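Encode chain A's predicted structure.
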Amino acid sequence: MESPPKPETSNEPSGVTSQLCQWIEALTLKDIPVEIQERAKYLILDGLACGLNGAHVPWSEQAVKVMVEFEGPGDHPLFGWDVNVGPLNAALLNGAFIQACELDDFHSAAPLHSCAVILPALFAAAQSRKRCTNCRSENAHFAVNGATFLLACIVGFEVGPRAGHALNGTEILQRGWHCGTIFGHPAAAAATSKLLGAPSGQIESAIGIACTQACGLMSAQYEGMIKRMQHGFAARNGLFAARLASSGYVGIHKVFERPYGGFLATFSQGSARDPQYQESEVVKDLGRHWHTREIRTKMHACVGGAHGLVEAIALLQHKEPEKMGDLRRIAHIKIRLSHPMFVHGGWKAERPITATGAQMNAGYICAVQLVDKQVLLGQFADSKLDRDEVWDLVPKIDCEHGPEFDHVVRGCGTHVVIKFGDGSSLEEVIDQPRGFDPPLSNEELLGKWRKLTENLVDHERRDAIEKYVLELDQVDDVGKLSAALSGSVANPLE
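Encoded structure for chain A:
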């Protein structure tokens, strides 16, 4: 009879969890290439654009209403609101705002939405640190400057994808987990611990406390509002974990390498990969390979794996405007997708559909691009979800797995074949959508920020936020940025 694995009781520095935490503690901005620091600023700006854009969509307003009624007001601001809440609710709701519109960043190889889990936790931690009575850090009672915030954010940008790669990236998504919320828990805890100035032992406790809370079912994508909030769970739980650990509360040590009940061993159960997990990925090339470079950003308001599909249809509309202009002539559309995207978004949409389901479903997204020639947030307003011209097309669309797209560099690609009633056909292949490789430039992200906030805030406020972010390492108190982000903004769907 096989003996059960023995629990490890020592805190050996050779373990990957300990190695990661020691690296986090020792890391300074001087250790990080300037280009990575600059890229992180633009990723932050993109995340804040998404947060302001998502603050007053219906599902966000409903969440704020419930949380304020349930727990009452607090002293932590919300993006785009005149309402303050407690620190945990601030992290939860601001994370939900960033994820609210499917316009935020994503990591294609180890899928998660980094800004949605990291920024809300850091803003809440920065606000809380001014009045922290239990934190053991010698800097616990002082305002957080922008350089500290930027450094902590980069820590989060690095840790999340490492946890994801250790679980074989998209494989966990294919098994039904909302992978970003899983990978996001250690990312939020690590980033917040760095901002609080925690030593490596406390960082390890925080990551362990966060990992035992990791959660997220991908069935949230079909009809409910809750998918919008699940990355917020990671932000809230990571903040909670870091604050507990900063008071001396001891969490799980060696959480990445434990063979029984460990983060990687448990979440990899049922994996068809060999090996099922790779703990070495947690620390692979630390300080040499920067995952911040691999965070991608969106130009279309839908699941990232469908961006190639949107662009394939758009290209056909450009090449063949007359033929693609009469949608009644379309007899059938076949869409080939990577396996992760096929199981994620290749299901048959049914009428009626919610905005969440519509933004996740490849067939519906395809129909929207055919009808509207764009896939932006406005296409998913309640008034647009039951249009006959869209639903006339949806039953004609079938998705199938295309193994040729299973390599990570083609994971967001597609092959579309459109057959017409006269027997003719058109087809288009997109290997990588725009913004995948190379990613959108910093200048393009600045343009996206200005476009998304154009009708939400006045130009003076927009320019102030922009200046704070792009000069973040020079800001003496990140509370100034937080104050500029609070205050009501418009609903982009009105």
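Residues 323 and 329 are 8 Å apart (CA to CA).
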